[in-house]
Write a structure and sequence with these properties.
The chain is an alpha+beta fold. About 55% of the residues lie in helices and about 15% in strands. The longest helix is centred in the N-terminal third of the chain and has 56 residues.
């Protein structure tokens, strides 16, 4: 069952319940009102009979005793004196009202009792001055006829209401779901081959516009992910092809010569080893990037002091690169050592800062690097500065994209994966990283982490 039919049936069922309850309520209220009105008329007739009985007591011979009402069908009257004897002289009608002593005693006690006798609706009233009991009943032919007519009208109205509601609901819901169906059709037309298409916003109401905007935002992310994937595969293939082509070229050149000396053969093997090492480095970088993409932040990670990691890294890098000059400074000395602590993975953080410091050394013109730690009430930052050629403004936004290499890196060895790995590690620790070109050819990478509470 499709949504349109389901909504139609549900709406029709709800309206039907309301209509049936309304019609039933109207019918029973009318029935109660008719019964009360007829009961009041019977009471009025009983009062007339009591007056007639009073006249009978005063002058029995002159009382004819005829009681009638043109609007009451089959009027029945019975009168009992104080001794509960049936007084038959005040009416010329033969009453068919069934009664017993218990009913008469009940009327004497309650003064007025309403009851039914077959098709007759009856009232029994106890009067004083003179004391008597009047039983009066009649068949409310006209009232019951109108009540039956009302019932038929209500049944027809309910049936017509339900039918018209179903038709109107079907048409209305069809109009309401029309843009949704169109929206669905447009969604079905979008696939991985045409992710550049977007849902139009002007033709929909506010709610569908919000849905369309969310869907378009998702398409933007998907398109970006697909483009990133294509770019990643393209650049990875290109980077792998370069050492493979070099290895093939050296191998073919060596095989084509019959007079290859031992020294020349060693040079070929050294060159092949360099290309193989380049492939291993590239593969390791790709594996790292893939592994880090699957990791998630954990509050169970141990507390790590960033300043201690930096001290140890700087010492190790100075031993590896003897010409490097690295200074570790504090913008302000923190009052609490916890200001520079965070929950993290020690090995990953060391890898990130090692990459940043080695990059700063590799692209520095004077081999001097300044690492500055700055902390405030909410965050602490690590600035890594070096002097060298600025990254072009057009390249700055793409610095952290895998395989991207700026104009200042064209003559340097590398794959363009280091900063991508660093960014992933920093974001894994809920931090941020950005590049700033300062004056006097100073390049600054800033890593920012939120202080633990």
């Amino acid at each position: 069952m499709n949504a349109k039919l389901r909504f139609t049936l549900l709406f029709s069922a709800l309206v039907s319940i309301v209509v049936v309850l309304s019609g039933t309520t109207i019918y029973f209220l009318y029935a109660q009102t008719r019964k009360q009105v007829f009961n009041d008329r019977l009471t009025a007739q009983a009062v007339k009979v009591h007056r007639l009985y009073r006249s009978y007591i005063a002058n029995p011979k002159e009382t004819t005793g005829l009681i009638s009402d043109d609007n009451m069908f089959d009027l029945q009257v019975v009168v009992f004196n104080s001794n509960l004897d049936n007084v038959k002289l005040i009416t010329n009608q033969k009453s068919s009202i069934r009664f017993n002593q218990s009913l008469l005693f009940d009327i004497q006690k309650k003064k007025q009792v309403s009851f039914a006798d077959g098709i007759h609706e009856c009232v029994g009233i106890s009067f004083s001055d003179p004391n008597c009991i009047v039983l009066i009943g009649a068949f409310d032919k006209y009232g019951l006829t109108k009540q039956e007519q009302l019932k038929n009208i209500i049944i027809l109205a309910i049936a017509a209401g339900i039918l018209s509601t179903a038709v109107i609901a079907f048409i209305f819901i069809g109009q309401v779901t029309k843009p949704l169906n169109k929206f669905n059709s447009q969604m079905e037309r979008i696939s991985e081959s045409n992710l550049n298409e977007r849902m139009p916003l002007a033709n929909y109401d506010t709610d569908l516009n919000r849905t369309a905007q969310a869907f378009n935002a998702m398409l933007d992310r998907l398109q970006q992910a697909f483009e990133f994937q294509k770019s990643f595969v393209h650049h990875a293939s290109h980077e792998l092809r370069t050492p493979l082509a070099s290895m093939l070229s050296h191998t073919e050149a060596a095989l084509s010569r019959d007079d290859l000396t031992l020294e020349e053969a060693k040079k070929v093997l050294v060159s092949l080893k360099e290309d193989q090492q380049e492939m291993i480095d590239l593969t390791n970088s790709l594996l790292l990037l893939s592994q880090y993409a699957k990791l998630t932040y954990s509050t169970d990670w141990p507390l790590i002091r960033i300043d201690e990691i930096l001290y140890e890294l700087i010492t190790a890098i100075k031993r590896a690169f003897t010409q490097v000059n690295i200074a570790l400074e504090f913008a302000q000395v923190p009052d609490d050592e916890m200001m520079l602590s965070l929950h993290g993975n020690d090995a990953l953080l060391r890898s990130a800062f090692r990459n940043l410091i080695k990059n700063a050394y590799q692209y520095s013109t004077n081999q001097r690097i300044v690492v500055t730690i700055d902390a405030d009430a909410q965050y602490f930052k690590i600035h890594i500065d070096n002097q060298g050629q600025h990254v072009a403004a057009a390249d700055q936004e793409r610095l952290f994209i895998p395989f991207f290499r700026g104009q200042n890196a064209q003559r340097k060895k590398g794959f363009g994966l280091g900063l991508s790995i660093v960014k992933r590690i920093v974001e894994l620790h809920q931090g941020t990283i950005n590049y700033t070109a300062l004056s006097e050819n100073i390049n600054r990478f800033t890593v920012q982490f939120k202080r633990i509470s």
